[in-house]
Structure to design on (191 residues):
């Protein structure tokens, strides 16, 4: 139940676990209907060598891990509060929050609740952009263009890369591959 998850988040926050064993990136979305768009964040982090961590106690397969939950601002506001308010104590370094519809309130409310942990907002649709980026002075959010969950995850990795050379190396390697790919396409453009 939602309360079970809230209780677990609060217990993990109180556990003062070794940061090496806790997720580094949180991926949350307002509904499971957002998953087809938000999967780009998993793809990007997987490409950078992250592994998904589903069990907080379990030692993660990879050095860097992400977790993922559906958190609905309007259907489970108490879970949104618990997730944002426990983010720092649970060892998260950055949260990627996606939502769609005209009232995509999860990203910006999570940005407020998780502060000073940075939140990268993903508008799941074009019509969600304004409700994701619209924040008052003093309550920041970083946001990507509609649907760009892959880029949100790259930005999350860039945050971590400042403290972890291994992630910086993977980001550079990814970028070299990207440039190589563009060069290949350009070379073959008129084949
Ligand atoms: C938002 O409302 C969700 O993020 C989703 O994009 C949209 C529709 O949600 P469902 O009705 O598909 O659950 O809160």
């Amino acid at each position: 139940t939602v309360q079970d998850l809230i209780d677990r988040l609060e217990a993990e926050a109180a556990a003062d676990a070794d940061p090496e064993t806790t997720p580094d990136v949180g991926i949350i979305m307002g509904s499971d209907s957002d998953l087809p768009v938000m999967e780009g964040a998993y793809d990007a982090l997987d490409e950078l060598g992250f592994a998904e961590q589903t069990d907080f106690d379990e030692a993660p397969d990879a050095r860097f891990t992400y977790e993922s939950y559906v958190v609905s601002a309007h259907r489970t506001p108490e879970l949104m509060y618990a997730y944002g308010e426990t983010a720092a104590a649970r060892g998260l370094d950055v949260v990627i929050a996606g939502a769609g519809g005209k009232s995509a309130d999860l990203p910006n409310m999570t940005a407020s609740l998780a502060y000073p942990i940075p939140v990268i907002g993903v508008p799941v649709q074009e019509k969600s952009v304004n409700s994701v980026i619209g924040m008052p002075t003093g309550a920041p959010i970083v946001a990507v263009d509609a649907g760009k969950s892959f880029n949100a995850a790259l930005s999350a990795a860039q945050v971590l890369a400042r403290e972890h050379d291994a992630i910086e190396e993977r980001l550079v390697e990814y970028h070299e591959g990207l440039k190589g790919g563009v060069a290949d396409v350009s070379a073959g453009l008129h084949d």
In short: Residues 30-31, 33-34, 72, 99-101, 124 surround 5-O-phosphono-beta-D-ribofuranose (CB under 6 Å). The beta strands are 25-29, 51-52, 65-70, 94-99, 119-123, 142-143.
